[in-house]
Amino acid sequence: MLKLDGVTVRFGQRAALDAVDLEVADHETVCVLGPSGSGKSTLLRVVAGLQPLDAGRVLLGGADQAGVPVHKRGLGLMFQDHQLFPQRDVAGNVAFGLRMRGTSRAEQARRVEELLDLVGLPGAERRAVAALSGGEQQRVALARALAPSPRLLMLDEPLGQLDRTLRERLVLELRALFGRLGTTVLAVTHDQGEAFALADRVVVMRDGRIAQSGTPLEVWQHPASEFVARFLGFENVVPATVSGAVAATPWGKVPVPPGSRRGEVRLLVRPGGIRLVPPLDGLACEVVSRTFRGSHVALQLRPVDGPLLEAECDLAGAPEVGSGVGVAFAAGGVVVLGEGEG
Question: Hey, which of 29, 57, 157, 277 has its CA 20 to 30 A from 191?
Answer without folding.
Answer: 57
